[in-house]
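Methods: holo model generation. Sequences were used as deposited, without trimming of termini or removal of tags, and paired with ligand SMILES retrieved from the corresponding compound records. Each pair was processed once, and we did not select among multiple samples. The sequence and guanosine-5'-triphosphate SMILES for this entry were:
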Amino acid sequence: MQNKWRLAKAGFDYDVVAVFGSQSTGKSTLLNRLFGTRFDVMSEAQRQQTTRGIWTDRGTGGMPVLIMDVEGTDGRERGEHQDFERKSALFSLAVAEVVIVNMWENMVGLYNGANMGLLKTVMEVNLQLFSGGEPKKTLLYFVIRDHVSAAPLESLAATLTKDLARIWASLSRPPGTESATLDSYFDLKFASLPHKLLQPADFEREAMGLRRQFTDAGSSGYVFKAGYKRRVPADGFPHYASSVWEKVMSNKDLDLPTQQELLAQFRCDEIAAVALEPFREALVPVRLRVQEGKVVEDLGAVAQAARTQALEAFVAQAARYHSGVYGKKRAGLVATLDSELHAVFLNQVKNASAQAAEAFSRDAARAIEEDNGGGFMEIVEKVRCGVMARFDRAVDGLMFEGAPWSFAPEKRQLDGALDAVTVELREREVDRIVERTKRLAKDAMGDAVAEHLAAGEEDMWRLVMDAFDSEASDADERLAKQLAAAGLIGGEQRLVVERRVHAALWEDVLVGLLRDEVSDAMVLLKLRAAVEDRFRYDAQGLPRVWTPSDDIDAQFAVARESARALLPRLSRVNVESSAKLRLARTFFPAGYEYERTLVLIAPARQRDLAKRFAREADALYLEAKRSMVTTHGKVPAWVLVLLVLLGWNEAMAVLFNPLYLVLVCMVGGAALVVHLLGMWGPLLRAAGGFTGVASDQVHRLLVEAVNRTEPVKPRKSSSGKRVPKKESDTEIEYTDPRRSSISKRLVKKESDIEMEPLGKDESRNSSRSSSPRN
Ligand SMILES: Nc1nc2c(ncn2[C@@H]2O[C@H](COP(=O)(O)OP(=O)(O)OP(=O)(O)O)[C@@H](O)[C@H]2O)c(=O)[nH]1
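and the model returned the structure below.
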């Protein structure tokens, strides 16, 4: 249809004509005249059958007509294959809309002649083919050859019509067609041609006139009327013809409606397959990009164009076929197109979703970071709107008219993912606010806590708790303002955050500060300050100078006991006075056990500290005793006598030497002044200190001198770090504890503090002070 006759794209605009008749009656000659074909014509000299089987050709001069030259009936050569006549008639009537019955004039009226048998066969097979459905008319065009008699064509036509009616009446018709008349199945048309050999010129002229009826659609006798068409689209003709032929040759029932449905199914599938090819090709590049995780901007447009093109190509060809089959096949094609598109679209939506979630998380975090005054929720909502708008744009392009899909579930899923990111960001924001609140609280409470604990007064916990309560109230106020400004949360959720902040203020801030204050070094410092406060200074805060009349033991016992009483007080937080903690159940988060944080110094550590304090206190006591011996020691009488005897000459020399006398008087005067002022104790201590410093200096110089001669490796700690020199390790300045807090007097950090030498226990203490806890 395509390669030889160029008719495949003709749709329904083509016609099929077949010629029947007895053998060698000039059928091929007639067809060649009418249609310009080149069917073989029997040679004049050799009378034998020329046409065997059925031959087909297209009319020349652009005629969209297929002509079938059918083997003539009564063929002697066929012999036993008599049923070929019936089969060829069945096939021709199934395919051709116009059947030319070629006969000699002298055959007209011969009812028992070969032609009548042929006509009977034609009518029978026609009934077989069309009785099932809507009757399809066929034009029977009788061409009477060698019309040489005087009988007019009308008379011949009437004779033939009568014969046909008789045959029709004699047919046993299938149920439902009993009352059907001949003309409900056939139109009859008659023409005659002069003798080809006797009247060649007339023959040619009239043959040309006949030709116009087949070529000139405008002529009144035009034979190819729309009602005769078998409605087999040109591109389906080969399949239809071969399928009919197959049925005919295998003697199977042949009904045209079924054949046409089968043809429609076959052709619609073929057309759909062809239409799908460019569609799939157009999708390949975008599908690849989508599979790489990209969002393809023009995916919707590309897909829609490819889909429309495929459908149009299908409709253009398939719509000519059986409407029921076509409808189903079209729906099938649409389903295939849409399912392939949907798979790509789903990937695109998945990519768009992932990109939206990522962009939201990143952009929102950045916008919060660069916050220029907008509230948290305002910022997040703005970013979210932008992200969702981008997602909608990517998805909207995929929703074209009649599309059976919706991406609402994917959008809901994305909404859920963005909600989760929002919650995460909000928690991070709340964490930041809580951290800020904690920092402020630490700054605010740090000094007060240190001061109250350093004073160690009976009511120190009340003061500490007052400070905590007040800070907690301030923090609540600050938090409420910050949360409101950020538009973060309110109501129940705010209460939850508040309680979380309370727990942080309590444990991370206050208890943290308190634990710093009750480290070993700090506790020992406090205890020592407490004992010194009572033992070394009098009620007016002046340093004591011990005299033999003082009861050092009693004074020391009182001072030590008062200091010892401080240790248990420091060991546990007393929250009785806190109004906030009285309502701990609603103040802290549910399940928070603040009681476990109350113990600051465990009993074992308390015992250890008590021992270490006792040793330090003993040192104070011994120092006090020594100062009294130094100040008030008595010189024995024999020493004085010995002194007079041995120093008589020197004394006389001094007395009689004016220079020495003046010097002695000055020294004596100064000593008298010191004595009268009661300054011997401090003076001796100052002298002792000076001697100590001088001895240290000498010691250092000696060590340096030795080191210069013999290099010594630097002393290292177990961790490999250089250990500072002992001489500069400790630098503690003591002043009146009633005038400033102990904490402020601590110049070096606690780990650097080293107590005074304590004889045999020194090594044990020093090893304990370098333990990890310290
Ligand atoms: N008398 C007469 N002879 C004709 C006419 N047309 C053709 N012939 C001759 O009849 C013979 C058979 O012609 P074909 O055209 O081959 O006849 P056919 O019916 O096609 O023959 P088969 O294909 O063998 O059945 C040829 O020798 C023709 O010259 C005609 O109109 N009148």
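Confidence is low (pLDDT under 50) at residues 711-774.
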